[in-house]
Design a protein that fits this description.
Blueprint (H helix, E strand, L loop, with lengths): L1 H15 L2 H7 L5 H22 L11 H24 L2 H8 L2 H8 L10 H18 L11 H23 L7 H20 L8 H28 L2 H7 L2 H12 L7 H17 L1 H15 L1
Helix pairs in contact: 1-10, 1-11, 1-12, 2-10, 3-9, 3-10, 4-5, 4-8, 4-9, 5-7, 5-8, 6-7, 6-8, 6-11, 7-11, 7-12, 7-13, 8-10, 11-13, 12-13
Length: 296
């Protein structure tokens, strides 16, 4: 079950790697408007399942702490991320926000039954170095004038890592509850949009297709997969492997002509891939040992 959970959790990372491409293809819709629509779309599979199997509605009856954790994680992360991008340069804000995988790896030591080993931290740091190589192409220059944005980005990283770690403590809670998290996040995003933004609607069918793709994958199915992964998989491996998202995102942008190949990308590939393998060494060795025993 742990290997299965880890692999399913990794599909969330694969889906998040499509976030930049689909967002770029979605046009100029304001972020909270986009968030409201895509989270509504993301909740549809869960809503349809609940309609088809009404008995599963009982699974949504959870303690307040579960709902606060889920809504705080999904909505809080996106609210703080948008705030960071509005109040600080994207490169620096992105680098700070991507501390969350490292926070997950280190914070996992506080979870029951988990032990933090040197290769987990080393793997996460390699991934952080690879992410730095990707997003710092124009250089890094932290400025006191952007402290609000930097603070929001740090809280963003802390919020998502905290959500992921706390979700592990709610492993008995069905993943069906993510449907409710998505609906609540959509509603809160809509309220922020009405208060802070002016509506802009897509002008081309391809933009609508990109928005639907966002809702079905990186802002939809990915959260269900992540919930299942952190509850049943190896959260330390998932934390370190999460640094693959910006790498895969960049490679996909290159494939579609939105970015150019470079030595910097090659270095990032080496660091992130090596870090993921290092963090997963326990699982890799366990798999080899199991095969050897089975062969005997």
């Amino acid at each position: 079950m742990k290997v299965k959970g880890t692999l399913i959790g990794f599909t969330a990372i694969l889906m998040w790697s499509l976030l930049a491409l689909l967002t770029a293809a979605s046009g100029t819709m304001p972020p909270f408007q986009l968030s409201a629509i895509t989270f509504a779309i993301g909740s549809l599979p869960g809503v349809l399942l609940l309609i088809a199997r009404p008995k599963r509605l009982a699974l949504l009856k959870q303690p307040a702490k579960v709902w606060l954790t889920g809504i705080g994680g999904l909505f809080g992360y996106h609210f703080l991320y948008f705030t960071a991008l509005r109040n600080a340069p994207a490169v620096e804000a992105g680098l700070i926000a991507y501390l969350w995988p490292l926070f997950i790896v280190v914070g996992s030591a506080l979870l029951p039954g988990e032990r933090l080993r040197w290769h987990h931290v080393a793997g996460a740091l390699c991934g952080l170095g690879g992410t730095f190589a990707i997003i710092s192409r124009a250089g890094i220059a932290f400025d006191d004038a952007y402290l609000i944005g930097y603070g929001a980005a740090f809280l963003c990283a802390f919020t998502w890592s905290g959500y992921s770690l706390l979700t592990r403590r709610f492993e008995a809670v069905s993943t069906d509850v993510v449907t409710g998290f998505c609906l609540a996040t959509s509603l809160l995003s809509l309220l922020c949009h009405l208060m802070l933004e002016v509506s802009i609607w897509p002008s081309a069918p391809t933009e609508w297709l990109a928005i639907i793709g966002l809702g079905l994958l990186p802002v939809g199915a990915a959260f269900y997969a992540w919930d299942f992964g952190v509850k049943t998989g190896d959260i330390q491996i998932l934390g370190a492997a999460s640094y693959a998202a910006p790498l895969l995102s960049t490679l996909i942008l290159m494939l579609f002509g939105f970015a150019e190949p470079s030595l910097r990308i090659a270095l990032a590939c080496l660091l992130i891939t090596g870090g993921a393998v290092l963090a997963a060494r326990d699982m890799i060795f366990r798999a080899k040992t199991s095969k050897a025993v089975a062969a005997e």
